[in-house]
Amino acid sequence: MVNAGGWGTALAVVLASQGHEVRLWARRPELAESINLRRENSDYLPGVAIPPPIRATADLEAVVDDSSVVVVATISRAMRQIARQLAPLLAPSMLVVHGTKGLEQDSLLRMSQVLEQELGPSFHGKVAALSGPTHAEEVGRGIPTAAVIACPDQERARALQRVFNCLSFRIYTNPDHVVVELCGAVKNVVALATGISDGLGFSDNARAALITRSLAEIGRLVCAEEGAIATVFGLAGIGDIVATCTSHHSRNRWAGEQLGRGRKLEDVLASTRMVVEGVPATRATLVLAERRGVEMPIAQQVYAVLYGGRTPRDALMQLMGRETTGE
User: What domains lie within the chain, and their CATH numbers?
Assistant: First the structure.
């Protein structure tokens, strides 16, 4: 398990609960030592017991040595660096799956593409993505969760399904990794939008409208990327959007809510040690949409709030005042 953040730790707990031996990589040696000593990741997943089969270490080579499955759960901006470090350590027979929701900022590549570029030709078309409505706080506590593993190589997807699937963590497979990964990135933009609405004091009607119309925007982007629109209405799409836009666990919805209440973006980001992936995802999503000629007005207004100095209330009013059209 590469990265001992909240999500990586939760996945390690899921795998360990099924009897798998799990080595958990922490970037900081002191975090690895604390996890092994206290049997808890108090920094990123407090209150969740770390089972004995999990051993944390800051030695990346020791984590992947002789492993049959390598799970990468780092933040999106660190993916390329981590992939570069992993490249000389992985054998082509290893199953590689990532659980990162985002796009690379400069290249706009999906995380599986970043991994494939760095890991080399033997992994092309073989890197899987794990996505869906999967808050780490609930997954780590064994609360029933369903997710999807997407990979062009369906044999590998089914092998990973067998590794992860259990009574508390139900896994489906999907060959449409493009849409699964796109939804995982863009849903955080939607969560920022609904959080802003909540912070302004708006309620269910506004939240439902933002979610629904955002699905239309994602659908247009998916079609431009030649993906399957049906995937948008699965776990990685609407499932993840519902969870992220309505849950108190969602750091992106929380960040949007703080913005809606009048806090500055830099203050919001400085007040949490967790990464708010929706902030970089908004910029990447808009650039990708412009390249594909896709209109995404909700994402555009989130961008205007984050980077253009527009007030949250003005952004919502801009959306409500747009020229009327058919659904």
Answer: 6-175 (3.40.50.720), 178-320 (1.10.1040.10)
